[in-house]
Design goal:
4-stranded mixed beta sheet; alpha/beta; 334 residues; 11-stranded mixed beta sheet; single chain; UDP-N-acetylmuramoyl-L-alanine:D-glutamate ligase
Length: 334
């Protein structure tokens, strides 16, 4: 099985924990992007992956390709362009101070990607799952057109489509997101979306007060309106502070909602990429045809472990995830 991802990879500049933007004289450098994060995590679970993107035609672009290759992601279909690499700045939160993100990605190489830049037939020739997100759709009208062309090809060739709603208010309006989402949902098979996505993007309403009953109601509605969507998932996070959260995965299939046990994360190193780690856990478990309860427990444990790792990507193995699932936080592995 092979998973392809389509999205932007940015240069990430982050403060050290306990330091604000205004204090910082230097930044830690990583690369990040939702689709790439998912692929890197899957590669660490021994799943074949391929990145579809465009990078800057300079040493930064070459470094991005090297970064992907070092994590066993196929880079054969990455284009380059004289446009810049997008940046994002991350101020890591701590205690009662939340993290902050500043984007500097306008007119980047990826946001200028054209339909003719990708040979869809060759890029997806041996691919089983295609993954992308709302962030990709938000960046340009041309990318939305290219995404639709890819989705139609996936439907024709029976390639499963995984979509993470991933709404970012700093990138586009809720009205733009709604229009694009309604256009692509008939082509989606695996959907990452929560209560806020159902209410704000899909304009759904219900009288349920309990969060699980509400989630079940919305997922029933989505699966009824879009029978092509066979898997829906999201997480429930309780933020006690920037350093202490609880996390639970909810996974829906065949009209049944499954919930993982609630995991406590009591010393968050880096929260960014936690949702991508969850998605990778879901996709891995679907590929391996695991039972629904395993799927949500594995995905939740994968996301929990990501919070202990600096940078955007989750670098743990499936054995690490299963060890947390089955044994909790235990003694040192020797």
């Amino acid at each position: 099985m092979k998973v392809a991802g389509f999205g932007e990879i940015m240069l990430r500049l982050s403060t050290t924990k306990g330091t604000t933007f205004t204090q910082s004289n230097n930044f830690n450098v990583n690369y990040g992007g939702g689709e790439a994060n998912v692929l890197i995590s899957l590669s660490n679970f021994d799943i074949d992956t391929r990145m579809l993107t465009k990078v800057s035609n300079d040493d930064i672009g070459k470094s991005i390709i090297k970064y992907l290759k070092s994590n066993d992601v196929d880079t054969s279909f990455i284009k380059s362009d004289d446009k810049r690499t997008g940046l994002y700045f991350l101020e890591l939160g701590s205690g009662n101070r939340a993290s902050k993100v500043i984007y500097d990605r306008a007119d980047s190489a990826f946001s200028n990607m054209k339909i003719d830049d990708l040979n869809i037939e060759k890029a997806l020739e041996d691919v089983d799952i295609f993954h992308f997100s709302g962030i990709t759709l938000a960046l340009s009208e041309e990318l939305r057109k290219l995404s639709m062309k890819i989705l139609k090809y996936c439907k024709e060739k029976n390639i499963l489509v995984s979509y993470d709603s991933n709404y970012r208010a700093k990138l586009w309006s809720i009205e733009e997101a709604r229009k694009a989402t309604l256009e692509i949902l008939p082509y989606v098979n695996i959907l990452s979306a929560g209560i806020l996505d159902a209410e704000n993007i899909l304009l759904m309403k219900c009288n349920q007060q309990d969060k699980y009953e509400k989630l079940k109601y919305y997922y029933d509605e989505i699966s009824t309106n879009y029978p092509n969507i066979k898997h829906i998932f999201s997480s429930i996070r309780e933020v006690k502070s920037s350093s202490v959260n609880t996390l639970q995965c909810n996974y829906y299939t065949n009209k049944v909602l499954y919930s993982s046990k609630v995991q406590l994360i009591d010393d968050i190193v880096d929260r960014v990429g936690g949702g991508d780690a969850l998605t990778a856990g879901i996709l891995y478990s679907i590929i391996k045809e695991k039972n629904p309860q395993y799927i949500c427990e594995f995905a939740n444990a994968a996301s929990v472990l990501k919070h202990s790792i600096s940078g955007d990507a989750n670098l743990v193995t499936k054995e690490d995830v299963e060890n947390l699932m089955n044994n909790g936080v235990g003694k040192i592995s020797r």
